[in-house]
């Protein structure tokens, strides 16, 4: 481990790297103390904390904020599926069975998140309803909204994983909800005759659903570059843009999801 | 003319961008500086002599820490990719045209995941990658690739296992950029799982056999348990005991 080399590499991309630390002196004083303790193994941890201190987002949401954000989306989904069931347009049989199963999961997620928030001495959000004026009268458009909500939910949970890293148990629960939303999304998409995964050609859904598959700060769903690697050209074997896009789902930030152009605009 | 030049240097072009500062730069822009800094920690570690891969008597250690998690994912993606490559090469006689098309797409997704992890591990942790799991290292003897039902049953096993594996491994990642990547992949695995389950029985995409009906949670499994479940399909013994530690 060569910290000077790391800082040098970092300076390639960030000219202000040293300015981000408390002060140069503090950096090396801290390093010296670590070395004195003979805890060579602890050096990576020290360096990691150094960088996260220097670069850490000051406005990262708290765990309770993340949980209430997730709860808001679950309440929105739950109310939507309740309205969908009450509207009586879902054909009996497999379609009604699928919607009932999905509703059951959203209700379970609402309870789980609410209980978790209370156990952390927080106050769970309540009373989130799907905007009645945005609720479609016909079954086909109801499914379009369901797809928008599920694919948005997948992106939303994914976008918060990093904010739950400090709590392993909650991070795992969020991931366990996240993959359920993805299963829901796949099934709804299949009900609509679409691929279960999101191809490069997926575009925005009709108003008022907005740009479900785009991003203002996050990558669009047709993104083919992951971790700096162009999936279509830099993996040794060429892949199509469609397969490259579909093989990775993308995140959305809290601000994007709650914007009026996306899920935020569907809340009553 | 430029095409000829490009073709001549294709092989170098594939590898080169993974190591150049330019790509590190774009990685930063994408992942955010905190994540990038952690990735650099890994790349700054190649002077160290702590070896993550210690094959001994036919056992491959997946390694420890974040690299261990990446190798763990790489092993599972290699298994899935090899399975779907065979599905694509010898499609079941009773597959519909749409099913054939969709499984070709799934095969591409899994091959991409495999190749992506290989590139990422070689870039961020040179020398720490596990060996390639070739055809001779895998055991698909229990699968009848000519029969749709056999292929679907195996696909369901692999996809549900993959989802549970990523769900259980996320907490072991220290680098938030890797966690996001894992999240980007696991939801695609969940889409595959839902698709395969619906082919077996429409409506089983998230039924009570896989999603807890009370909590609404998908499964999450620890690396050692996942590898134990996958081991019948892999001849070489994988040791996941240090993954994420």
Automatic annotation (TrEMBL), chain A:
Transmembrane segments: none
Classification via Pfam families: Ferritin_2
Protein origin, superkingdom: Bacteria
InterPro entries (UniProt xref): Ferritin-like, Ferritin-like_SF
The name this protein goes by in its record: Dessication-associated protein
UniProtKB/TrEMBL annotation, chain B:
A Pfam match: Ferritin_2
Organism (species): Hymenobacter amundsenii
The name this protein goes by in its record: Tat (Twin-arginine translocation) pathway signal sequence containing protein
Gene3D superfamilies xref list: 1.20.1260.10
